[in-house]
Amino acid sequence: MVATVIDGKAFAETVRARVKAHVARLDRDHAVQPGLAVVLVGEDPASEVYVRSKGKATTQAGMKSIEHKLDAATSEGELLALIVRLNGDETIHGILVQLPLPDHIDTDKVLAAITPAKDVDGFHISNVGLLATGQKAMVPCTPLGCLMMLREHYGALSGLEAVVIGRSNIVGKPMAHLLLKESCTVTIAHSRTRDLPDVVRRADIVVAAVGRPAMVTADWIKPGATVIDVGINRIDKPEGGTRLVGDVDYPNVAQVAGAITPVPGGVGPMTIACLLANTVTACCRIHNLPEPEGLTA
Ligand SMILES: Nc1nc2c(c(=O)[nH]1)N[C@@H](CN(C=O)c1ccc(C(=O)N[C@@H](CCC(=O)O)C(=O)O)cc1)CN2
Question: N or C: at which end does the chain have fewer Cβ atoms within 10 angstroms?
Answer without folding.
Answer: N
